[in-house]
Design goal:
Oligomer: single chain
Strand content: under 5%
Helix content: 40-55%
Shape: globular
Largest sheet: none
Number of helices: 4
Number of strands: 0
Order of helices and strands: HHHH
Structural class: mainly alpha
Radius of gyration: 11 Å
């Protein structure tokens, strides 16, 4: 997994958000499209592509896409 691949995959989960607004330093919770449903979509994306299970606490304790990437890359 490369950082760039993770970012592109994350961006692709958001249908209504311009990908240029989604970078590693982005607070994903501030995106207009972010919701509990999007959290489930991201959980499924990470599980399917990286075989990592993210929890609710992972989202609660992270802020940026970089934070999530660090959790997945462990």
């Amino acid at each position: 997994m490369t950082k760039e691949d993770f970012l592109i995959g994350f961006q692709e989960q958001f249908e209504d958000t311009d990908p240029s607004l989604i970078a590693f330093e982005t607070n994903y919770k501030d995106l207009d499209e972010w919701s509990s449903m999007m959290a489930l979509v991201v959980i499924a994306f990470v599980d399917e592509n990286y075989s990592v299970s993210l929890s609710g606490d992972d989202f609660k304790n992270s802020t940026t896409i970089e934070d999530l990437y660090q959790l997945v890359s462990k």
